[in-house]
Amino acid sequence: MSSRHIRDTTLGRVSQDSGQVFLDEMQVTADEFKAMKKLNITACGTSWHAGLAGKFMIETLARVPVEVDYASEWHTAIPSWAPTQSPC
User: Fold this and answer.
1) What span, in angstroms and rounded, lies between the C-alpha atoms of 7 and 11?
2) What global pTM score does this model have?
3) What is the pLDDT along the chain (88 residues), one digit of tens a residue?
4) Are 39 and 67 contacting, i.e. CB atoms less than 8 angstroms apart?
5) Pick from 74, 72, 11: which is nearest to 40 by CA?
6) Which of 9, 29, 53, 59 is the most exposed place for a label (fewest CB within 10 A)?
7) Of the candidates 38, 51, 49, which has an alpha carbon nearest to the alpha carbon of residue 79?
8) Helix (H), strand (E), coil (C) string for the chain
């Protein structure tokens, strides 16, 4: 993956100048992000491929494990989080 591909993928979400990430519509605080031990991305079609790109970037930059699942199969999958953890 070239730097151009990464820049194009993150355009509008990551400041090219400061590296600040913008995910305002998710309504998750910086402290909540820091507390995350694992992320699950569910998607279909093209968004599934975007999820794979996100997985690569999150695991590489934040060192947080990520699973990407097809949304159509996720509701029948055995959850990978412990019963005391929230899926969200």
Assistant:
1) 6
2) 0.67
3) 677 877 787 788 888 888 788 877 888 888 888 888 899 899 999 999 989 988 988 898 889 999 998 988 877 766 665 555 555 5
4) yes
5) 74
6) 29
7) 38
8) CCHHHHHHHHCCCECCCCCCECCHHHCCCHHHHHHCCCEEEEECCHHHHHHHHHHHHHHHHCCCCEEEEEHHHHCCCCCCCCCCCCCC
